[in-house]
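Justification of computing resources. Each target in the renewal requires a structure prediction run like the one illustrated here; the chain below, 123 residues long, is used simply to show the kind of job we budget for.
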Amino acid sequence: MTTLFNRLQPAEKFRISVSDVAKFLRIPQQLIVRIECWKYVLFVHRRDVGGQFISYRKLQQWLIATACHIQKCSTLPQLLKLLIEIRKDSQKYEKQYSPQHHLFLSQVWFQHWNTLTRTLECS
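Resulting structure tokens:
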């Protein structure tokens, strides 16, 4: 796995509900029997089609957790290091990142970059 994945630790830290998964899959909650949080993916037991794997990277929690890590960076070198981790992860798993994911994370990153550079200028 990538450095970003190890940093976020989705299986341990994400709280994923049946309603979150149903919303993501665009199915009624009643079709979900249970969800298993495996180390690298979610496994969804469904009444209609058996089972289905979902990458953590496709979930909104992944974006939120990544954005939180961006905002926790207190120095420009930390922020640049995280950008490299995000870029490597998104290149390795490009099919799991949508253009909206890239846009959102870019906006959060640049916003925090501007905040940090303004703070440095004022010091």
